[in-house]
Amino acid sequence: MAFLCRSAASLLKSSRAAPAVVRAARGYSAGGPYEYILVEKRGEKSDVGFIQLNRPKALNALCDGLMRELGEALDAFEADGEVGAIVLTGSEKAFAAGADIKEMQNRTFQECYGGNFLAHWNRVSTVKKPVIAAVNGFALGGGCELAMMCDIIYAGEKAQFGQPEILLGTIPGAGGTQRLTRAVGKSLAMEMVLTGDRINAQNAKQSAFELTLAEGNRLEKRLFHATFATDDRKEGMTAFVEKRKASFQDN
Ligand code: CAA
């Protein structure tokens, strides 16, 4: 997952080839009909699956019904040979303000544990086609986690990412502690999870780049170490020391 701090507008606006888009949208049956999301195919070739979270009064809080519909739409786009990539977005004000607190409020431990609450949310991260999150406004709690499940995040200027679960007396439950650490680094992730503070797109991007470099360096170091288990590494260095041409055996 990568944070790209760039206007999400290009992903959000409809293609100029409006008639084709409208035809594609009308003729398209990506599951549906849907109550909480808008679904259509966009692009001149109708090859972009477009899903917009559409619960404006609740700032796109991720209720069970919405997440079920999202799963159905993703299944439909995954099965659609015409679709090459999927865009997931919300509104200018909110990508999603988290799991639906009102739905969760009276859940018991037994219900959550026994029913493996939130397990089905994982569908976004198992889609084989690239999924791009176009984020503006609040991406909080489950909303931040949902964005991080996508392969790429395009963040608009008003985007705010946060894991404020601690302020509700709980912790992230849909991968936030794990993906945020990888996305922005342990230090900032710990700070966000322990305080509930939000970061904007610029912070997310800067931190993401730091981690990408750090991760890359760690991986590189391990691969470097692994070369010391090969005969060719020994031969190459020995040949240098003995001032002769190396004779590599691909071992
Ligand atoms: N669940 C349910 N309803 C929510 C919601 C949520 N996560 N977030 C916002 N809403 C509702 C509000 O209750 C309100 O509804 P009513 O008009 O019926 O009262 C409506 O959306 C508008 O919200 P506000 O009036 O609060 O709007 P605001 O602009 O003043 O504040 C906000 C916006 C800062 C995002 C604030 O709504 C907020 O803090 N929301 C909760 C964010 C949160 O804690 N998210 C984490 C949820 S837990 C989770 O996600 C667990 C997990 O890991 C999966």
Automatic annotation (TrEMBL):
InterPro entries, per database record: ClpP/crotonase-like_dom_sf (IPR029045), Enoyl-CoA_hyd/isom_CS (IPR018376), Enoyl-CoA_hydra/iso (IPR001753), Enoyl-CoA_hydra_C (IPR014748)
EC numbers for this chain: 4.2.1.17, 5.3.3.8
Principal location listed in the UniProt entry: mitochondrion
Recorded GO MF terms: delta(3)-delta(2)-enoyl-CoA isomerase activity; enoyl-CoA hydratase activity
Regions that span the bilayer: none
Keywords in alphabetical order: Acetylation, Fatty acid metabolism, Isomerase, Lipid metabolism, Lyase, Mitochondrion, Transit peptide
Catalytic reaction(s) noted: 2-methylpropenoyl-CoA + H2O = (S)-3-hydroxyisobutanoyl-CoA; (3E)-hexenoyl-CoA = (2E)-hexenoyl-CoA; a (3S)-3-hydroxyacyl-CoA = a (2E)-enoyl-CoA + H2O; (3S)-hydroxyhexanoyl-CoA = (2E)-hexenoyl-CoA + H2O
Listed pathway(s): Lipid metabolism; fatty acid beta-oxidation
Any GO BP: fatty acid beta-oxidation
GO annotation, cellular component aspect: mitochondrial matrix
Subcellular location: Mitochondrion matrix
Family assignment from sequence similarity: Belongs to the enoyl-CoA hydratase/isomerase family.
Subunit structure: Homohexamer; dimer of trimers.
PANTHER family for this protein: ENOYL-COA HYDRATASE, MITOCHONDRIAL (PTHR11941:SF54), ENOYL-COA HYDRATASE-RELATED (PTHR11941)
Name used for this protein in its record: Enoyl-CoA hydratase, mitochondrial
